[in-house]
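Hi,

I'm pasting everything inline rather than attaching a file, because the server keeps stripping attachments. The sequence lines come first, and each chain or strand is labelled.
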Amino acid sequence: MLKIERRRTGRDHGNIVTDSNQFIEERNVYYRTTMLAPVRTVSTANRTSPLLTVQPRRGLVDEKFQIVITNLLPNQEVTLHSLHQSEDKDFWEAFGHYISDEHGTVTVAKDESLGGTYEGTEQMGLLWSLRPVPGSRSALRLRKTNVLTPMVVNISVYNGHLSQGFSKTSVLATTVTERWYMAPGVQRVNIRENGVRGTLFLPPGPGPYPGVLDLWGGGGGLVEYRSALLASHGFASMALEYLSPDELRTADVDVSYFENAYQILQNHPKVQKNKMAMLGLSFGSAITFSMAAYSTIIKPQCCVCISGSHVVPVDKSLFEVFEEIKKNMDKVHVNEDNHVIQRGMILPIPSDPAQKIDVGRIKCPVMLVNGGDDQNWASVESAQDMEMMMEKAGNRHLLTVLTYPDAGHLIEPPYTPHFRATNFILQEMKEKIVMLWGGQTKPHAYAQEDSWEKILAFFHQHLYSSNIRAKL
Amino acid sequence: MLAPVRAVSTESRRCPLLTVQPCRGLMDEKFQVVIKNLLPNQEVTLHSLHQSEDKDFWEAFGHYISDEHGTVTVAKDESLGGTYEGTEQMGLLWSLRPVPGSRPALRLRKMNVLTPMVINISVYNGHLSQGFSQASLLATTVTERWYMAPGVKRVNIKEKGVLGTLFLPPGSGPYPGVLDLWGGGGGLIEYRSALLASHGFASMALEYLSPEKLKMTEVDGTYFEKAYQILQNHPLVQKDKMAVLGLCFGSAITLTMTAYSRVIKPQCCVCISGSHAIPVDKCLFEVFEDIKKLNGKIQVNEDNHLIHRNTILPIPSDPALKVDVGRIKCPLLLVNGTDDQNWATVESAEDMEMMMKKAGNRQLLTVLTYPDAGHLIEPPYTPHFRATNFLLHKMNEKVVMLWGGQTKPHAYAQEDSWKKILAFFREHLYGSSVKAKL
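And the predicted assembly:
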């Protein structure tokens, strides 16, 4: 519901401003609230006005946009700049240096950025190379918690090749684009049932749809955006909350918690019972391996495990698992920046099967997605060991492994930035640290884009049609 | 709105895929509708469904046959029947009409521009023309159509007795200003201004005909001049890059002000479905009293719809009864439909051209005349209304007003004229030498 408040200013009338995101500002404070300096646009002095277009202006987070600048001078040096204010109120920016062609046009999908936060022909560089503006707090991570509203990104064109001082420089042109996790018609449903907590996202239409149980990692909480995006692609996806010490006692979260969650999803009237999948990242992958190998209830048609490992104690409650993990804290290192490197904890991969999930028991197709520079889990080594185990057990043909050189641990849906190290609260130690995830920005961005495409195709193949390799 | 039936697709090995790109677009933006994974040469019906703010349901549909790959591409393929025919990329929107059983003479207008128009697009097996809510779907999706682009700001204007809504483009500006005037239906209509702001113009939708809020004896030339100045003096508006846009009675105001006012001196004007034969040189009360005197010329057709067009015919030869358009000093674009049954706009345009030739300012005039278009030429892809319910002011009488026009030519007129209006504004308000492309 739109709430309109009337506030009086110093003059006799306060005019109320509302934009399509329903922010309410007083007219007289627009300078304070716009992020750019209130200077006269250079373009009005010229006879031709640079035109900046971003298509679509409202897109999905994993959708490419076309950015074109026209009506520049030929061979004009310009800087294309993106600016975003996160839900935490931090500012993030990215920029690329371009030279217009003989027609005065810059086409980001075709032209090369000669410098900035990204280089080369990078259609989506303005998003995946976003980084906190100078002076920001350190080790930040950009995540959208409220998926009902879009990410709002300001895109601007500046004269010349700038690398700083954007807020004090006048723009040639500017526009605003929105990036949405939820496509039109997607429904968000709170799940609070049988002690299970989560959020279900349903695609538009009467259904029924394949179901995906979506598990994040040791950071805990309830992270909705990946499920929202999966629903936008035709999957009823449930983001499961399983690690929130304030809401769920870790001693109570064990195999039956995940089995309950799976069944709640499977039994939903709009979900197809026999078209189910599990998707996990990090610790969520470990849970996925465990359930797929041992549960008599959880029998998905396929699984995807991102940055995971099978070297995890099984059949215990979360409390017990974390107690086990604590025993290996001596293998946790710290680098010169005091960032925590956890990858050594499960190395060397034990040969004793009792210490690993028996992936030879898995009966459905499994896709592993790993980064070659994962500093948090030894996911590449784990994948190699899993392959060996599955070869021995005779189910190797079910396995697909995608390994991305120089990608880090946090392989997420595309076009959101890469984070090499971010603030993290170690649940088991209740300690604030900076966790090293690894990866280099450009290869990580590539990994996110390519893996997401392949994950969606994998889901389509196993959940929508068995014989046809469905295109995205 | 659709029966919860099991989608046929889950039984077949093929899963029809329906995509609408962009899934969130502006109202005047084209979308690409593509269906894939059908059988080759399969007969399907593409259907759109929308529930208006008034809770009525509107629908449109086209009959297609997939190609040898099982694909339908709406921008390229022909609809063989339905509410539109032929290769019509946007037919699912501009041919929307109330579903069978609806109240008659409805008009589809978005009053709340902060939210999008939500359209359900579905694919059905076979060539259907009814019973959509009971038939089983092959695929469905939802698309949103917005009047406000991201970053556009909406500002309530209530200043010096003037009422309106200002829409500002994103960024720090400043921008050209457009004063946006609707017609005799009254009230405050925001969507065209919202769309103009989405295209880079600070546009103010002016409320001037709302008898409960604004006394008609007090709305005269000074009201419009005050409104123009409020817009012009806004810190984000460029004083010397102003325009006035009017439809119907709003055009009459535009012509009158531009010809006579010493305050309103825009860089250009656009008048849609207007006439110079109704000078708005007195307060609204008196102008409408004058108009009432012409009511004898109102006709009624066999459906009991009111035909208003003859009230100003014949165009008077006495200059005192017309706006002296020879005095206009800025470029003027007229947009008219030949099947306008509400005002004699085509005849008025011919007379204006004559007057301007005589006065020596003919070079300022551009006239766009659309065959078989009606009176309500609005931004594109919203439906055509040949006749709708109307509340005659000061008569407190509900009638059905005949606007005229045929659906397909009217849709073309809306699309083409809007493109040209935006180009006209860009040419005169953004850059003088470059004929800006859309």
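The longest helix of chain A spans residues 441-463.

If the labels don't parse on your end, tell me and I'll reformat.
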